[in-house]
Design brief:
Low-confidence stretches: none
Strand order of the largest sheet: 1-4-5-8
Helix content: 40-55%
Number of strands: 10
CATH architecture of the largest domain: Up-down Bundle
Radius of gyration: 21 Å
Number of helices: 11
Largest sheet: 4 strands, mixed
Length: 380
């Protein structure tokens, strides 16, 4: 499908970023999966090339490009090579904007340059062992002690958990009000801040996911992000973009899966003729091609809405719900068309199958997405 949502600047940027991926990422991706982590030097290389926090002001070292399409391009190119561990988009488009929107000038000057250069890797700590999609169930607390807050709690499933240098940590600041919470900038090396071992997962093995522990961590008030009781509101404001990031990745990965499968069925012979000549294969691919292209149009429209600050929570939830469910279906169908080879990790479709399962869970489960959409059409 021909897409007309990109302009010449975007095409040039895509070519540049694709070269970066082919030189610095794709040749090393398998080793990263074996090691269970992406080395820090590739973050610095991405920063040197201007690929991190592209939206940030030039005075901090950014490009000053407030256009999600550039982020979308990077998401698509990473998906094209099946790279799920180098979580640039969480760093740049999910976590970084909280600093860009809610930090004061001193905080921006202190933190953004390192984030842009790749010296400082970002993470966000919301999820807890007993509180995932339900942020109001959060137990982590931060007590006002005058010149600092005393932070206590445990966070789990934290992406960039081991590599991360700066975490935005959500914690309740009023025990009587479950929606009164603050966002705290916790830096590597702060006393009382520790990490568990890398969590073992069924997919995305090179993404360093870990538990974080906060035991009487003294967070100076200069590290409080915005209003210390408005953190819930801040988090809600970022969820639409988070879900669009996921939707963009899901549909791009589905595109990769079908491209791989089209190539495979044209080469693979069964009973003396290419697999692509069998009606089942042709009908399966025709159905998937139609569904992927239709979903891509909706995701591209959501990107346009985000760029104009008009993306609704309902549309973002629809995009996330539909593309994550579609990706799971496409990954399964494409693996089936690969036959036994699809079960082998040397084939990218095998990695796509296992890596994609979590997309129906993170950034809000499919069930939560359905509830958000249902409220918009029924509870009015």
């Amino acid at each position: 499908m021909k897409r007309n949502c990109f302009e010449e600047d975007h095409n040039i940027f895509r070519e540049s970023f694709r070269r970066f991926i082919e030189e610095e990422v794709a040749p090393n991706s398998e080793q990263w999966r074996e090691d269970g982590i992406v080395p820090r030097n590739v973050w610095r290389k991405a920063g040197e090339n201007g690929y991190l926090l592209t939206w940030a002001d030039e005075k901090f070292g950014g490009l000053g490009i407030d256009d999600f399409r550039f982020e979308q391009i990077m998401i698509e190119e990473l998906a094209r090579v099946g790279e799920t561990g180098f979580y640039m988009n969480l760093h740049s488009a999910l976590v970084g904007p909280y600093i860009g929107k809610f930090a004061n000038e001193e905080q921006k000057a202190r933190f953004l340059p390192g984030c842009i250069s790749g010296e400082t890797i970002l993470g966000i700590a919301m999820t807890e062992p007993d509180a995932g999609s339900d942020l109001a169930g959060m137990r982590s607390s931060a007590i006002d002690c005058g010149d600092h807050y005393l932070l206590n709690g445990t966070k789990t499933f934290i992406s960039n958990g081991l590599n991360g240098d700066l975490f935005i940590v959500a914690a309740r600041t009023d025990k009587e009000n479950p929606h009164a919470m603050g966002l705290f900038l916790v830096e590597r090396g702060m006393e009382g801040f520790s990490r568990g071992n890398k969590l073992k997962k069924m997919g995305m093995p090179s993404q360093d996911t870990a538990e974080l522990f906060f035991d009487n961590v003294k967070v100076p008030k200069k590290n409080v992000l915005g209003n210390p009781i408005a953190g819930f509101k801040y988090l809600m404001s970022g969820l639409a973009e988070e879900r669009l990031i996921t939707a963009s990745s899901c549909i791009a990965t589905a595109q990769t899966a079908i491209d791989l499968t089209i190539s495979y069925v044209n080469e693979r012979k069964v009973f003396g003729k290419p697999l692509s000549k069998f009606q089942n294969t042709r009908f399966k691919l025709a159905e998937m091609r139609s569904q992927i292209d239709i979903a891509q149009v909706f995701v591209d429209r959501c990107v346009t809405e985000l760029n104009s600050n008009n993306l609704s929570a309902e549309d973002a939830s629809m995009a996330k719900l539909h593309t994550s469910e579609l990706l799971s279906k496409v990954a399964d169908e494409c693996l089936q068309l690969h036959g036994g080879n699809g079960f082998m990790d040397e084939y990218l479709i095998s990695k796509i199958y296992t890596d994609s399962r979590v997309t129906r869970i993170f950034a809000g489960t499919s069930e939560i997405m359905k509830e958000i959409i249902a409220r918009s059409i029924l509870d009015v």
